[in-house]
Specification:
Layout (H helix, E strand, L loop, with lengths): L2 E5 L2 E4 L4 E8 L7 E7 L6 E7 L5 E3 L7 E6 L4 E6 L8 E7 L15 E2 L3 E6 L1
Parallel strand pairs: 2-11
Antiparallel strand pairs: 1-3, 3-8, 4-5, 4-9, 5-6, 7-8, 9-10, 9-11
Amino acid sequence: QVQLAESGGGSVQAGGSLRLSCVVYGSNYRNNAMAWFRQAPGKEREGVAAVFTRDGNTIYDTSVKGRFTILYDSVKKTLYLQMNSLKPEDTAMYYCAAGSLNPLVALHVIGYDTWGQGTQVTVSS
């Protein structure tokens, strides 16, 4: 019913910036939250940032707070993640997700039912 398409990943040096985008396709899905997750090789998928689309409130993982900014444009139906001051530790596959109904699981995989294909972010030192 709903499809998500990420883009904007790439390779940058530490301290650089990237902006990820996630376009939402579909007209019959009303999500309450959208989020960005990331997964590095051998690691669990972890929540990076989430935004509640009805009021714009956001939540961030402590590892990215102050460096990343999440925004949902309801007109363009596009989710963004502005990533500044990137660190090698940020290297991972980044995924767009939609569907969380509970703030308590906004940064947990269990809170989402729709996922994008992922876009790779690589930060070198």
